[in-house]
Every structure is written in structure tokens, then in C-alpha cells.
Amino acid sequence: MKIDVQHLAKLSRLHISEEQVAKFEMQMQEIVGMVDNLPELSSEDCLIDPQNPMTCRPDIPQNNYKRDDILKNAPQVQAGCVVVPKVIE
After folding, report:
1. Cα separation, 52 vs 70, whole angstroms
2. DSSP 39
């Protein structure tokens, strides 16, 4: 299988030098080869224990904290809110 590393780099907006292209192509082909060699699993080989099925807990928010207790731990507070660094220009 031929993997177009240059195209993948363009899609992911990565700059890959010409020297690295051959190395990455080989590594990606090895990864795809390993995935191709994985054995098929049947429903009989299921890894989930039927005696202990997974159950999700109900998503119930618990707010046991008072605003003043939270704000006194914040490094910087302004107008009753926690001040955080600007991350979007």
C-alpha cells in the first residue's frame, strides 16, 4: 500500500522535509501492516465478562462548594469571577 505522506502532511498542516518523507512512508506502511495482521475476533471471543456488564452511572452534578470557598483558592479574582489568561486573539 502506497501512503502519500506529502498529502497527509498538507491535510494536517505539517511541514515535513524531503529527507523525512521516505522515513515516514516506511513507518506508516509498517503500522498499516501491523493493523492488517491483527486477528479477527468473533462474538465468542468477546472480552467483556457477561457476569459483570459495564453500567454507566447517572450523570448527576454535585455542587457542594460555596462560591467564596472556590474564589479564595483562585490566583486572581475580578468581579466575583476567576481571571484566566487570554487564549484566543
Report:
1. 38
2. P
pLDDT digits (tens, 9 = 90+) for 28-71: 999 999 999 988 877 666 667 778 777 888 888 887 888 898 89
41 lies in some domain: no
Grid cell for residue 37:
495482521
Residues 5-25, mean pLDDT to the nearest whole number:
90
Q: Residue 17's domain spans which residues?
A: 5-36
Structural domain count of the chain:
1
Grid cell locating 5: 505522506
Strand-pairing partners, residue 78, are 81
Residue 66 inside a domain? The answer is no
pTM, 2 dp: 0.44
